[in-house]
Fold:
Amino acid sequence: MRAAVYDRGCPEGIRVVTNRALPAPSRNALLVRVKACGVNPVDAKGVIGDKLPPFLRGFARRLVDGKTAGFDLSGVVEQAPPGCGFAVGDEVYGAVPPFRGALAELVSVPLDQVARKPESLTHEQAAALVLPGVTVAQLLDQHGFAPGQHVLVLGASGGVGHLAVQIARARGAGFVAGVCSAKNAAFVESVGAHAVAAYDQPGNDAAPLDDALVASLESMVARCERPFDLVIDTVTSHDERDASCAYERRVRGARGVLAEAGEGKKKGEKNKGDYVTIGGGTAEWLKAGVKRVSGIDLFAKGRELFWIRFPGCGKDLEALRALAEEKRITPRVAQTFPLTSRGARDAFAALHSRRTVGKVVVVP
Structure:
């Protein structure tokens, strides 16, 4: 079968092979004929991304070579174990573990990481929902989100950001604001943001560009008469271009924009004023790994790098399916590409451009 595999010697580090072995049947997984596969920044970064220090990334990328890329997919069940609740011909969407790869024609999907596809969505839209949707759902749960809270989404026009706006609204947020470029502000408003601040809005001699964004956020808070309870930062990463945005410094430095964190992190306590990123440097990933494995929280009060959990995410997909079928969330498919070497490279290049509005999808 055809599959997209990592190859450091190719443009964008990806190519499509035609002789990939078919996945073996399993009592704990479905065999799914892929109709669409979502592509994420973590895919374009070779899965390793910014989790390792620069001096180890080259070595790690060599280990990744030959592995099938991709995590999220939508398709049709081709083989199902008896009594699993799914049948041949069912339309499903789900996620595969790292390095198992969803960018292929036929994929083995663990039973606890799959759900029936929302009938209201196309396969392309369903594939676009998986990783971003599960990320946001788990992040909100982990940080004690409650109806009525105020949420700020940085990078609100991107694959995760535009769904964060919609899911927060669907789950009862009292106020959701987004930060994006001025040209994408109307899109972010169309998916449900109550207000939008453009990071590239013009400043003046008295208020330079950085201060113009801060002033917009301060104005939002003043109108609402309360700060944001949660900031979801989908932009920050190890990349110098992201670091130069200094979003956390600017948000925390703005008057009254972020609620003060709780007094401590006791078991079961939910802090106010959480600032959560989904990317960052190696040290942040190490802290996230320690928290994920041991439960020990090494992050400072009120901040964290969130790391998605795949095992058991089927329940998150079921909840997202309900929201989609109620027309409360709809993923935006930015571009689609064919499952060819050129198509996979163009998909990765689109993500590397950092200008994608919505989600990139590959179609076999």
